[in-house]
Amino acid sequence: MAATELIIYLPVYNAEATIASLLDRLCTTAKLIGKKPLNMALKAVILVNDGSCDNTLTILKGISREKTPWLHVLDKKQNKGAVDAVLDGMRKSLEMAAGNDKYIIVRMDSDLEHQPEDLLKLLQPIKDHKTDLVVGYIPFDRRNGFFASLFNRYIGLAESREFLGLDIPQFCPGFYATRTSVLIRTFPEAEKMAILFKKTYNKEMIAIDFVSIVLAKRLGNRISTVLLSPIENKWIKKMPLKRLFSYLYSHKEIISFIREQ
Q: Which CATH number do you get for residue 169?
């Protein structure tokens, strides 16, 4: 049986503060993943640069390819939004996997709220064939702001219990791993739903990750969860109340939309 390999895709926008550290930590984590018990090889890290207007692209061009032979940069000249970037990452991952189920494909963010070291706990249940898709969720606390913590916990629990039969205390978790065969089936449907949602509500379906996980569940796949490490203090972001209310309103639209599909 062919050795399991790993493909990671990340949407990137104005990530000059985190991108170098992220790649450095991925280099270290790749060595750990290559050892027992995982024994996995890092095939590709796909960074979808979504029209960054800071120094992100300059930093990426300066990264040593000898140190990061697995690095692939999709450079979009214009910012199209996170949803398009996620879909582009999915598409490129499937292209690289070429239908081979030896690959585990991971979606994560580039702002270091998702820590590369957590890949080890995210990947193990799939490698052991105990599940088909693993969702990692962040333990939000008051460092993120009191209302942000409450929002993630209660909205996350409500939506995950209804659609997944699981308790995930995070709104729209975006750090998850799955095999190629699962993504092959969910990607076309997620893309269709993103297009339909935009036509219906004239806005992006910000919960594209949650919708993709729901689609995997509806197709009969086993879903499990792992608790991620708390966000490091220097990467904590306190979300303004205005944005939280915007997310809450979008959440209601997304839930209604998923129920109708």
A: 3.90.550.10
Cα(210)–Cα(230) distance, rounded to whole angstroms? 20
Instruction: Say which residue the tokens 């969702």 belong to.
Output: 135
Q: How far, in Å, CA of 115 to CA of 222, rounded? A: 24
Length of the chain: 261
Phi-psi category of residue 60: left, alpha or beta, with phi > 0 → left and psi -120 to 50 → alpha: alpha
**Hey, what are 70's tokens?**
């697995």
Q: Which domain holds residue 143?
A: 5-260
For the chain, the helix, strand and coil percentages under 3-state DSSP, each to the nearest 5: 50, 15, 35
pTM for the full model? 0.96
**DSSP one-letter code for 98:** T
Q: What pLDDT score was predicted for residue 239?
A: 82
Q: Count of domains in the chain?
A: 1
Report the chain (261 residues): mean pLDDT per 10 consecutive residues.
86 97 97 95 97 96 92 96 97 97 97 97 95 96 89 93 97 96 98 96 94 98 98 90 84 93 91
Q: By the 8 A CB rule, do 193 and 211 touch?
A: yes
